[in-house]
Design goal:
Number of helices: 17
Largest sheet: 8 strands, mixed
Structural class: alpha/beta
Radius of gyration: 22 Å
CATH architecture of the largest domain: 3-Layer(aba) Sandwich
Strand content: 15-25%
Strand order of the largest sheet: 3-4-2-1-5-6-7-8
Number of domains: 2
CATH class of the largest domain: Alpha Beta
Shape: globular
Length: 406
């Protein structure tokens, strides 16, 4: 059993810098696949390396005995140096030819793509030339994101939502199995006309770094908390982008600050809104109480979370799992998969979408009710452990892959 895994979430350099090795390890599905070829077609853009025009070259790294990482670049041809879009298209077609030969030579059974747009198109072409089974793993409710924020799934590539929808339908139609990363993602797939028998759930719990499995009480205290023994610290984790509503976490914190002026907020993550968010903090006079720590590796993030009081989550992906593993109560918007994940277990409080005042009020209620916060903390930890149980996750994936190939 061999698989090609097409993904543009992280380059190997990014993953190692942030201790995200589990992102790659999980692709092996335990011991199911004899070998994994993990291919990132646009690694140079993500690593922000100088563009090279040296003809066809890929970086090939042995991640482990069972996994090879192959990273392509977006510009191969010097003759097309001044025509970037055409250079990109030809570069990706050249990488496709390379990948087809790789798949045929190694008898690849499965192709897995982590979006129904860019790598989804590459996946469909690979399927056509290799006859391998195509699996699309969907990580977002792209319709919902566009309706609420106007943000495209891949704005640099497609420019218009109707183009994305056309590509999405084409990729879904030509896939053999479509997996949602959570129930909300799965609903997005079903809402777009995919038959239920062609779908399944591959929880994102398998991607979570093992650093977050450590009991919160056994984690090291981060230097950030030196001298803050009695300070209640909230945390927001995510990219500082419009679609994640990081400004709402700060607005909610201003409500908390009115009642608990000693409280503080950590903003863990980076993005294009950072300057705007700093200006908001300045306007509200809370600059010394809101700490922008940027992108953090998983060990540091794990230690930080263990010392926090609660998480403010306007919209979170895998970080929602990480904070529950840290035993943090979560105050979250009724958005995306957050209600589905938190409510049944009692691991968090759900407030109406976009109502940051309600988020602040719910956080104040937790501060006023320490016993309730402790109960929620225990439930959060239990939920996180159940959601990241690798034996359960891998057993389901193996059954789905086996059924697909049968």
């Amino acid at each position: 059993m061999n698989i090609i895994f097409l993904d543009t979430a992280y380059t190997l350099k990014m993953a190692r810098a942030r201790a995200l090795d589990q992102e790659f390890i999980s692709r092996q599905c335990g011991d199911f696949f004899q070998h994994v070829w993990a291919i990132n077609p646009i690694a140079d853009l993500q690593d922000k390396t100088p563009l090279k025009f040296e003809g066809f070259k890929v970086d090939i790294v042995a991640f482990s005995e069972n996994q090879t990482v192959i990273e392509g670049v977006t510009t191969y041809y010097k003759i097309l140096k001044k025509i970037a879009p055409l250079n990109f298209i030809f570069s990706q077609l050249r990488l496709l030819i390379y990948t087809v030969k790789l798949a045929r030579a190694n008898k690849v059974n499965i192709i897995c793509c982590t979006d129904p747009y860019f790598v989804g198109i590459l996946g469909v072409l690979l399927k056509f030339f290799t006859k391998a089974k195509l699996v699309i793993w969907v990580f977002g409710n792209y319709d919902d994101i566009y309706e609420s924020t106007g943000t495209l799934a891949m704005p640099r590539l497609f420019k218009r939502r109707w183009v994305e929808k056309f590509v999405e339908r084409f990729v879904f139609k030509n896939s053999d199995l479509i997996a949602g990363g959570n129930h909300d993602c799965l609903q997005f797939v079903l809402n777009n006309g995919v038959p239920q028998e062609k779908t399944t759930l591959f929880p994102i719990g398998k991607l979570i770094s093992r650093a977050h499995q450590i009991d919160p009480l056994a984690r090291s205290s981060d230097i950030f908390f030196d001298g803050k023994k009695d300070v209640k610290v909230f945390i927001f984790i995510g990219r500082l982008l419009k679609l994640k509503f990081p400004d709402h976490a700060i607005f909610a914190f201003t409500e908390i600050n009115k009642i608990y002026p000693d409280a503080e907020l950590i903003m863990a993550g980076d993005g294009e809104m950072r300057s705007e968010l700093l200006a908001i903090c300045s306007d509200f006079g809370i600059t010394t109480k809101v700490h922008f720590l940027g992108n953090l590796d998983q060990d540091k993030l794990s230690n930080l979370m263990a010392c926090c009081f609660a998480c403010l989550s306007p919209l979170s992906g895998r970080s929602l799992v990480e904070v529950t593993l840290a035993g943090l109560p979560v105050i979250a918007y009724d958005r995306d998969w957050q209600s589905d994940y938190l409510l049944a277990s009692g691991a968090g409080t759900i407030v109406p979408f976009m109502d940051w005042k309600a988020m602040g009020a719910a956080a104040i209620d937790l501060l006023n009710s320490p016993d309730d916060a402790k109960v929620m903390s225990r439930r959060a930890r239990k939920l996180g452990l159940e959601f990241t149980d690798l034996d359960t996750i891998y057993a389901h994936e193996k059954s789905q892959y086996s059924k697909l190939l049968a």
